[in-house]
């Protein structure tokens, strides 16, 4: 029996991040900016009650944050940051995946759609996220297991 024949496929539930930071769709651009900066995140699931309604990325926040270099007065900058609801900037109906799908399927979706995050949904509820960073971690583990690590990296 070959090595691959006896292995079960790696599942999304095995690699997803379950310690989630979420925001509500009525929270504002400033909230997302602070969460992204403080937590070092690049994706925030947006909720309405217990329902996933969108996702905000660090790219979205950068796109909608007024440039201080534009010369807008501080009061206007603050007003925009404190009054722009996340529902206005989020990606609605994000591509999602179920926890029992394979890591291969998740990686293929991330690659094909050119996205960085897949919310993981089970029975209509958000259970986690799987990101390109999670996928790179899987790749690194597999490369180590197979011995495909340059000698200078084995310290």
Which architecture does the CATH hierarchy give at level 2? Answer: Roll
Question: Could you spell the SSE succession in H and E letters?
Answer: HEHEEHHHEHEEH
Bin the strand percentage: 15-25%
Strand order of the largest sheet: 1-2-3-4
The strand count comes to 6
Describe the structure.
The protein is an alpha+beta fold. The chain has helices at residues 12-15, 29-39, 58-64, 74-83, 86-89, 103-113, 132-146; strands at 23-24, 43-48, 51-57, 91-92, 117-122, 125-131. It contains 7 helices and 6 strands; from the N terminus they run αβαββαααβαββα. The strands form 2 sheets. A 4-stranded mixed beta sheet has the order 1-2-3-4. The longest helix has 15 residues, at 132-146. It is globular and about 60 Å long. The model has no long low-confidence stretch (mean pLDDT 93).
Quick rundown:
With 155 residues, the chain is α+β, with helices and mostly antiparallel strands. 40% of the residues lie in helices and 19% in strands.
Any key phrases for this structure?
single chain; 155 residues; alpha+beta; CBS-domain; four-stranded mixed β-sheet; 40% helix
Topology:
Layout: H1 12-15, E1 23-24, H2 29-39, E2 43-48, E3 51-57, H3 58-64, H4 74-83, H5 86-89, E4 91-92, H6 103-113, E5 117-122, E6 125-131, H7 132-146
Parallel strand pairs: 1-2
Antiparallel strand pairs: 2-3, 3-4, 5-6
């Amino acid at each position: 029996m070959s090595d691959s024949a006896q292995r079960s496929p790696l599942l999304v539930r095995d690699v997803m991040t379950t310690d989630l930071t979420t925001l509500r769709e009525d929270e504002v651009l400033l909230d997302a900016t602070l969460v992204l900066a403080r937590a070092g995140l690049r994706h925030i699931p947006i909720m309405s009650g217990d329902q996933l309604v969108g996702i905000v990325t660090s790219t979205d926040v950068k796109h909608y944050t007024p440039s201080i270099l534009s010369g807008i007065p501080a009061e206007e900058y603050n007003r925009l940051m404190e009054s722009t609801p996340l529902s206005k900037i989020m990606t609605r109906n994000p591509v999602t995946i179920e926890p029992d799908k394979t890591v291969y399927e998740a990686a293929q979706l991330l690659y094909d759609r050119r996205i960085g995050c897949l919310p993981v949904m089970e029975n209509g509820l958000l259970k986690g996220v799987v990101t390109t960073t999670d996928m790179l971690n899987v790749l690194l583990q597999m490369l180590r297991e197979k011995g495909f690590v340059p000698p200078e990296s084995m310290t």
